[in-house]
Amino acid sequence: MSTTPFQLTFYEAVGGHDTFVALVKRFVEARKILKPLAERAPGSASVRELYGLTLYRLERWRSAATELEAYRNLTGASDRLPVYGFDPAASGFFWCAGQGGFGIQTAPAGAALAAALLLGAAPDPMVAAIDPTAYAPGRFRMA
Q1: pLDDT-derived band of residue 127, with 50, 70 and 90 as boundaries?
Q2: Which contiguous run of DSSP H or E holds residue 83?
Q3: Which pLDDT score, from 0 to 100, does residue 9 have?
Q4: pLDDT tens digits for 103-122?
């Protein structure tokens, strides 16, 4: 069995080949548990995400992409923008959701914006020019 560049990078990240092999065994076991759950509960975003990430680590790219796309569709807002802010219909409930496939890339700005909204503080200069109403949960309410 040849070693892929992905595996080599992962070996270094986790501390070597033996650790990698142990992790792969865990991912194989996780796949055995998650596959039937994903089939029985296709509307469960958490299961679809975990199953997709497990498949990704097992280098089953197409299947991983299918599961992660399903996860994104289940968790993303209808306008495909994240949701940050207090829910106008649920007192005290703060939304920080819907980051979808770009969550890793947008996390620093999203966290800074969410923190300012949650704390009622001035926004970090990184996000000061962003209009938070574009991400407010109230944008989905019918008039």
Answers
A1: very high
A2: strand 83-86
A3: 65
A4: 778 889 999 999 999 999 99
CA-closest candidate to residue 97, choices 86, 125, 89, 53: 86
pLDDT of residue 103: 75
Q: Which amino acid is at 119?
A: L
Q: What is the dihedral of CA 28, 97, 80, 46, to 10 degrees?
A: 20
Question: Reduced to 3 states, what is the DSSP secondary structure of residue 89?
Answer: coil
Other CB atoms within 10 A of residue 24 CB: 15
- In the numeric block, which tokens belong to residue 112? 């800074």
Q: What is the pLDDT of residue 126?
A: 92
Query: How far apart, in Å, are the Cα atoms of 98 and each of 16, 19, 33, 47, 136?
Result: 35, 33, 26, 16, 12
**Over the Cα atoms of the chain, what is R_g?**
19
The rounded distance, in Å, linking the Cα atoms of 137 and 133 is 8
Give me the helices (H) in the chain, please. 5-14, 17-40, 45-57, 61-75, 103-119
Angle between helices 17-40 and 5-14 (to 10 degrees): 110
